[in-house]
Amino acid sequence: MRSRPALAQSRLAAARAALADCRLCAHQCGVNRLAGELGRCHAGPSARVFSAQVEVGDELELVPTFAIALSGCDLRCDFCLTGAESWNPRAGQPLRPEVLGRRAAAALADGARSVMLLGGEPTVHLPSALEIVATMPAGAKLVWKTNAHGTAQARELLEGLFDVWLADYKFGNDICAERLARVGNYSAIVRENLLWASRHSELIVRHLLMPGHLECCWRPVAEWLALELPDTKVSLRPAFWPAWHADRHTELRRTVPAQESERAFDLARALGLKLVP
Amino acid sequence: MSRRRPRPKPGTGASQKRRKQGRGGRASTDILILSDGTVLAHNLTPGMAKVLHKLNPNDATIRARAERKPKEAQ
Asked: Could you give phi then psi for residue A65, rounded to 5 degrees?
């Protein structure tokens, strides 16, 4: 059986070739990124890194984690906490996988529990993600932090490489998804990704509670999870803040009121969701 | 009495400036302090978790992260 770094290396050529007709995310732009064409994410053929550091703010079982954040994303969430970097794939520093590999190894030796690859959205930089995986210590617990908007092609390239998928389920309906992140057919795509991830790795589904979106977004998400993925870990995050272009939307110009947050957790408990801190 | 909450403008806040300058090398955390004293944090580093824990030792979320032991030490 191949080691994980070897497996990542073996898929690198196919992942790079995929950029010539890019359909890694569900926008399926079909542009030739190798020839300089830009799709919805505006990403070129190479990833850049806007943050790589040990963090403890993610789910408790994963931290401390060495978090590697790649610039650029296929979604346009107006409330993005890292909008300047997520909306701009040219932000940050050029990717140097071997340097990241050394830093990750040092962080793990120093007590980090995992290495997390995130963005922006790492799916749009799948070849670079494979390069990073190829440099990681073989026994490292690898976390794929994703918006769950990838295609079957992307999932095939990722299969068996990450121990944990930490996947966002942001919107409970397609209208909010279109209005707040300019993405169509959101629910079907995310659900397809979550179901796949639950079969192929450990899965933690994360939902950022947005002010005023308890009924339209959190309730449908929670009910679907209770029905379709009842044993999956769920991370409900109430610490929304009005970042980036959130002020384009009246209801997002504030944080989540304590009462709304309590109702959201009550709903999760009533549905029997497996909440993780 | 109504309370006004801060509304950071895109790309102009202190955190945005710091991120552009600092992310290349030094670890950084974004924090938002609300008018009621609530502190929200993003990209929370171990060092900042310890600082926030000292400010409010009763916050269970921060306490769990500030006191999180490295893997080998468990």
From this structure: -125, 145
In chain B, the residue whose alpha carbon lies closest to the alpha carbon of A244 is B10
Domain annotation covers residue B33: yes
Residues of chain B neighbouring A57 (CB-CB closer than 8 A) = 29, 41-44, 49, 65
Question: Do A113 and B71 lie within an 8 Å CB cutoff?
Answer: yes
pTM: 0.93
A112 touches chain B (CB under 8 A): yes
User: pLDDT tens for residues B9-39?
Assistant: 444 343 444 444 345 567 899 999 998 889 9
Interface predicted TM-score (ipTM) of this complex, two decimals: 0.92
The Cα B54–Cα B42 span in angstroms is 17
Instruction: Indicate the Cα dihedral angle A41, A46, A49, A54, nearest 10°.
Output: 110
Q: Is residue B62 part of a domain?
A: yes
HSE-CB at B68 with a 13 A cutoff on CA atoms is 30
What does each C-alpha distance from A210 to A54, A254, A264 come to in angstroms? 26, 9, 10
Dist. CA B38–CA A172, nearest whole Å: 28
Token pair recorded at residue A168 = 């966002």
Full residue range of the structural domain in which residue B41 is found: 27-73
Between CA A231 and CA A233 the distance in angstroms is 7
Contact at CB, A242 and B71, closer than 8 angstroms: no
